Amino acid sequence: MKKWFSWIIKRYTQLKLDKKIALLYTALILIVSVTLTISITHTAGDIILRDRKDLVQQNVNVAKESVETELNTILNTGLGIVVSNAVQNFYTSSATSISDMENIRMLIQMAMDGNSKIELITLFDDSDKSDFFSKSSTARHKATEEIKEHYEDAAETDYYNTRIYYSNTISTSRSNSLTIYFPVYSTERLNQKYGTLAISFRFEMPHISAQKDELNYKLNLIDEKGSYFIADRDIIGKPATFLNNMEKGSNTYVCDNIMYIVSPLEKWNLSMSGQVNIDDVNRTYAHLIITAVIIVAILLALALYIGQQLFGALYAPMYDLLNAMDQIDSNNLNYRLPIAPNAGADQIKLREVFNNMMSRLQEALETIQNKQTIIEKLKFEALQSQIQPHFLYNTLESIHWQALATGNKELSTMVKAMANFYRIVLSNGQDIIPLQKELEHVENYITIQNLRYDNIIEYDIEIPDNLRKYKLPKITLQPLVENAIYHGIRIKEGCHGHIKIFSSQTEEKIEIIVANDGVNPSNEVIERIKALLLSQDISEGYGINNVNKRLQIEFGSSYGLRYEISDSEEKNLLAIITLPPIKD
């Protein structure tokens, strides 16, 4: 816990100032919102829970009254039969006549026709005089025997010594049945019992629609012993244990997330038990909490948004300045702080001062850069002056004509090539020449080297005519060819080598590639060449370093020289110069 607290403090201290204030503001709003939500929902929840309990009690009472009405209807029917003349005569006559039997049948038939739920009515006594009616004749004998057998098991009531029994086998339909037993007493002789009338009828517990109050009810009937009388089959006859825990005078008990509500049935020695899941009772309460949370969340989000806008407007100038510092640190010296027309006077002043300071700084840097460029050009011109002996060209021309006069053709060819070589070197004082002139310079140089090394150098120049008009600094390709000969072909010790000069072009640039098939270079060699190109020391790798710097001085840092290894199987070394497409 301590580590977590330390980590939170550390993270908080690392936040920006406006984030810290916004976080404290958020925490305060959140605490107030949660406190308010808890207070409102707790008060409203108590009210809703009390109202829900009252509603459940009302619905259980309605279900109880429905059962009482149904039982009382059967009770009145049975009492009407047992005191009828037909039944009294049936038991008092010594010999049962056909008319007595027919009267009873008519009476019982009328009772069954008057109540469609009645399935069996039977009369029986100790001498087993009996008569019965059933809507399913195939089940009459079996049903009658079961009714007699269950008489002793039936529960007593306070209605005229009647008994009541619940069965799931007596009914001739798929519904369960209730059987009410009526003692048949003489209407003339006090306490003289003749027999028993049993009425069996279909019984279903009342159904309370869940849509009425969004609750799911489970109704049971409990007998006077505290056992389930009508309930699910697996608990019929088992004690309703929650009755033992119910406080005296209370009809409500909550246990294991179930709320039990009990309402007694008058004189039937039964009680209606309603069971409701507390989660269902609290569903409205939960809806209230959700609604309150949503409202608080919306208000919280609105408060946070307003706070963020306020803090953002307050700290925006500081973050704009920090962003400007990051831009400058990334060498973006052209960045300027925008000035909004509706900004405050202090913000406008701050931005104007910063922008003016950056403009002066950029002007100073450009001045320094221009001076540095002039210095680099002066160095380049000094290097060029080292290879501009005009008299040498004239001397070579004289030697060429003397060699022709004496018939020394080989000497004449070498001297002529050298003369042409130095003519291009001089170029009438021009530093930038067409690519065609530079290629002629390269050819003269290769001619001289072939005369020197017994024609070991083969070469191809595959440059389109339209590219030969573009310009580049003189003596750009010759140092690359020289490197190819001395560090590639000549190392092969007498073997012939091949140099290929070709090109590629896009709208923005031209690339001239010098490839040779000399000794295959390693990655270490490529890295060493890259280091030489970046070196400020021109004493080492003078040729390629000089070419790269001259190209960048003339055309910018986007152009210059680089070395790569070809993707072909030969893995040739490629010297690639990048030029802008300039003709004039």
UniProtKB/TrEMBL annotation:
Residues 312-366 form the HAMP domain. Residues 351-381 form a coiled coil. It holds the Pfam family His_kinase. The chain crosses the membrane at residues 21-40, 285-306. PANTHER family: SENSOR HISTIDINE KINASE YPDA. It is found in: Membrane. GO terms for cellular component: membrane. Gene3D superfamilies: 6.10.340.10, Histidine kinase-like ATPase, C-terminal domain. One of its GO terms (molecular function) is phosphorelay sensor kinase activity. This is Putative sensor-like histidine kinase. It comes from Blautia glucerasea. The lineage of its organism: Bacteria, Bacillati, Bacillota, Clostridia, Lachnospirales. The keyword Repeat does not apply. It comes from the Bacteria. InterPro entries: Bact_2-comp_sensor_kinase, HAMP_dom, HATPase_C_sf, Sig_transdc_His_kin_internal. Its EC number is 2.7.13.3.
